[in-house]
Amino acid sequence: MPVRILIVDDHAVVREGLRTILQAQGDMEVVGEAMDGREALNKAEVLKPDVVFMDISMSTLNGIEATRMIHLRMPTVRVIILSMHHTNEYVIRAMQAGARAFLLKESASFSAVSAVHAVMRGRQYFDVGIEAPHNKRSGLVSPKTPLESLSRRERDTLQLVVEGNTNAEIAEIFKVSTKSVETYRSRLVLKLGISNVPALVIFALQHGVISLPE
């Protein structure tokens, strides 16, 4: 059976390019596409792909958080990250979220097929120029950032706040009371030392929670 692949990227030209390359392989089938992280979650649950190519920079639920959720809900799905950025923090956070490979968009057309073969064999794959974030003594290296102080619900709240959602809208998404959302936001202020939305947006950009359009 061919490897079932879902492509997630907010640029149609990237999706079309990858689809063309992957579909040309006799052992691969692109079963779907998504434009953002939330659509990716929904389609992954319906289409049950073997591999997901995940853009790291999307305006609605970034690729790292979408990867984390897919890994929790569907741990057998192999996620391959696509990015314009390959700083150490991005790579480490992606792998901590459950990604199995990290590719640069500029070279994805050359490495996408090799990455699929690698992850389907149970291996990790890193594009040329990207250092695997491991060492023999401690395994996956963990960057010490303020994000690590946040619980999963607090991280989700941060994501939704910087995307422009109100407390009422966040409460509806979480299916909780507005009072609960206010509590999550209060914890964000306490843990991050940031008391206003513009500063939260800057923090989110600096730490890859959201990204400027590429």
Short descriptors:
214 residues; alpha/beta; Rossmann fold; Arc Repressor Mutant, subunit A; 2 domains; six-stranded parallel β-sheet; two-stranded antiparallel ribbon; 47% helix; globular
Helix content: 40-55%
Overall mean confidence score, pLDDT? 86
Strand content: 15-25%
By CATH, the architecture of the largest domain is named 3-Layer(aba) Sandwich
How would you classify the helix and strand content by structural class?
alpha/beta
Total DSSP E strands = 8
| Low-confidence sequence ranges | none
CATH topology of the largest domain: Rossmann fold
CATH superfamily of the largest domain: Response regulator
Count of helix runs: 9
The top level CATH class name of the largest domain = Alpha Beta
Largest sheet: 6 strands, parallel
Q: How far apart are the termini?
A: 35 Å
Gyration radius, rounded:
17 Å
Order of helices and strands: EHEHEHEHEHEEEHHHH
The largest beta-sheet arranges its strands as 2-1-3-4-5-6
Number of domains: 2
Overall description:
The protein is built from nine helices and eight strands. It has 214 residues and is α/β, with parallel strands linked by helices. The strands form two sheets. It has a six-stranded parallel sheet, sandwiched between helices. The chain has a two-stranded antiparallel ribbon with strand order 7-8. Strand 1 (3-8), helix 1 and strand 2 form a beta-alpha-beta unit. Helix 1 (12-23) packs across helix 5, helix 6 (152-162) crosses helix 8 (178-192) and helix 6 packs across helix 9.
